[in-house]
Fold this protein.
Amino acid sequence: MSDFAQPALSLQGTCPLPHLGVIRCQGEDAARFLHNQLTNDVELLPVGQARLAGFCNAQGRLQATFVVFKHAAEEVWLITRRDLLPRTLKRLTMFVLRAKVKLSDISEQQAVWGLAGEDMRALSETPLPPWATLALPQGVVIGLYPVGEQPRALLLPQAEWPFQATITQDDWLAGEVLAGVADVQEATFEAFVPQMLNHESVGGVNFKKGCYPGQEVVARSQFRGTLKRRTFVVQSAAPIAAGTEVFAGTESCGQIAQSAPLPQGGGVALACLLLSQSGRDDLQAEGLALRVWPLPYPLLQDI
């Protein structure tokens, strides 16, 4: 394990994010409908603001994760992984019933870009906290967790976006891993409850809101002190695919939630691990040794 140096990444510039798409929820019941489906408060979300949220099954397992942006009083956008978007849109639509809301995929009309480093600072003189927003002529900027001292954000651009891509998608995805905020993708569909991905510690779960699918399981995990798995940043000699099983010696102890190659070689990943095994020095996946690095944010303690 001593061969690993803590990964560093320079993110400076802009990057299109074709792996992300946008679901539009439109109608007078849009916010109320989503409030009743997601892990976070949407009904009281002010226009122009954003939040992280999850969409669970009845067992509290995440089927999708979103950056939720309230575009207008009766219009909410859900930024999510494209590989899960059709399935997510279909399931959300099943719950509409008599609600006055229309759901549609606007990914082809609304691009999503990433901003980092000096390009981000050029748009905002003061640091933009995670999930805070900034309305600019170029579009709406949504703050993300930084990578070290480098600020990052999503941009929902207007029709014409004047910049060229200066960050590769692989580097952006490595930054997502190092920032420590995992999303759900096809390989991890229904694999985790929100706390397994630390979502309650990064603003993705509201424990005071009303019911939503899986709410009892999510709340019970938090308030009865039964959290046995958490997500950690890990490094390996080569990239390891999301969904891959992690072992401590010969015993299964977790799963890779998200991964990316590093520009200097090797890979980084977010691994959901049993807390009882996370400190071991024989963690491995696909025969590759894993080095666990500290999270870039504090974990909310069990209540």
User: Anything to note?
Assistant: The mean pLDDT is 93. DSSP finds five helices and 17 strands in the chain.
